[in-house]
Amino acid sequence: FPSHDKNGGRRTIMINNTGGTVTEQLEPNTQYLVRPTSNLILNLPSTVETGDMIRFVDVQGSLNYNVSLQVRAPVGVAVQGSTAGSGGYAGGELIVNTPNAGFALIYAGLEDSDGNGITDTNRGWWLVEV
Questions:
Q1: Tens digit of pLDDT for each residue in 41-100?
Q2: pTM of the model
Q3: 36: burial class by Cβ within 10 Å (0-12, 13-18, 19+)?
Q4: Per-residue exposure over 51-81, b if at least 16 CB sit within 10 Å of its own CB, e if not
Q5: Nearest-angstrom CA–CA distance, 18 and 7
Q6: Are strands 102-108 and 53-58 parallel, antiparallel or unpaired?
Q7: Dist CA 105 CA 115 (whole Å)
């Protein structure tokens, strides 16, 4: 993915893959526009800090019971409090199949911005906007 933003605003990237697995990790604090026509798997970044966010929007409206967006955390990292993904995947995973869905995830790490510890059960990626 490109590493710069031309207009100085929030980074927005179109993911042109319409299905399969995107091997590059997503970038923190970026918005992604997706248009899957078959199951699409995206990988959350492994280098993140508490408060980092990633947003997604299904701009084509193709998500449905046969077409899903699978957002996977690295192995051992929770999504919504769980490290059990689908099909035996050993990391947290969020599966979305709502047409035109727009949502964001926020990361909770070892401690907050004030240095207060975050318990193990509260670490990982959490839905913050739906």
A1: 999 999 999 999 999 999 999 999 999 999 999 999 999 999 999 888 999 999 999 999
A2: 0.89
A3: buried
A4: ebbbbbbbeeebbeeebbbbbbbbeebbbee
A5: 27
A6: antiparallel
A7: 21
